[in-house]
What does this fold into?
Amino acid sequence: MPDNFDQPRLAINRVYTRQGDSGQTALAGGQRLPKNDLRIEAYGTVDELNSFIGLARESARDLTPLDGILKRVQHELFNLGSILATMPEDVHPKQARITDAESEQLEREIDRMNAELPPLRSFVLPGGSRLNAELHICRTVCRRAERICVSLAAATAIDAAILKYLNRLSDALFVWSRWASHRQEVPEILWEPNQASSQALT
It folds into this structure.
């Protein structure tokens, strides 16, 4: 059994500090970077993803085990963001992080839920239910976070487990969107190219 990560040691007494008014922000190690730096953009997008997953959880409250899975993913994304907000040389051995174990768990959940679904005969459109649409939003934000992290990795060293996790999570969110519709007995909306306006005129 691996050792637990350290519990956070912080006290948030004031929401605003005025330290970011000049367009810079501080990393966990104290270094200050402009707010449009790729590293800031990366963990900011992960934070955005976490928020949308929180929204999806509200629609998945009565859909076990998805609600519990999404809650766990929120914690994992916070761990991932913690590493992105820390320069590699400042990462503590017991700092919360993403490991291969998190990606492997996603793979097991993908396989288990996908086994319940009918084969996919076409691309699907987001929608059909609120939860389906929310999970697709999560999927696309996750893909954006992955792209930004790939750009960051091209400029500096980042943990390869981060890229693997985001890639696997976007796949999981797609499967979960289909699984949610299946469990809620909501028909999937299949892509029909000839539904375009130009085809309706012919």
Notes: The first strand starts at residue 24 and ends at 26. The chain is about 55% helix and 5% strand. Helices lie at 38-59, 66-84, 100-114, 130-155, 160-183, 197-200.
